[in-house]
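I have been asked to look over a protein record a colleague put together. What it holds is a sequence and that sequence's fold in token form. Please read both lines and tell me whether the tokens look consistent with the sequence. I do not need a full report, just your reasoning and any doubts. This is what I was given:
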Amino acid sequence: MNKFILPSLDEMCNDCLIRLQQRRSRIALGIFLVLFLNVAIAPALYAATDSLSRGNAYALGLLGLVVIGLAAYLTAVILKPEKF
């Protein structure tokens, strides 16, 4: 009797599709949160400086959020490298 049962191709495809959809929803949620925070940060940055245009304030706010996100990611990679 064979102890190892391989899943069918249909089951493997369904499992891969479910994982892909979960990953996409995480990415979409992350992008939404970054844009939402940028809408909150950019007007404050625009009000604090008189020399910036509105577009530059939004770009700097987005750049700041990306830098903070990268710092958090790299900190997680340094603290738990076996997870990655």
Observations:
- The first helix runs from residue 9 to 48.
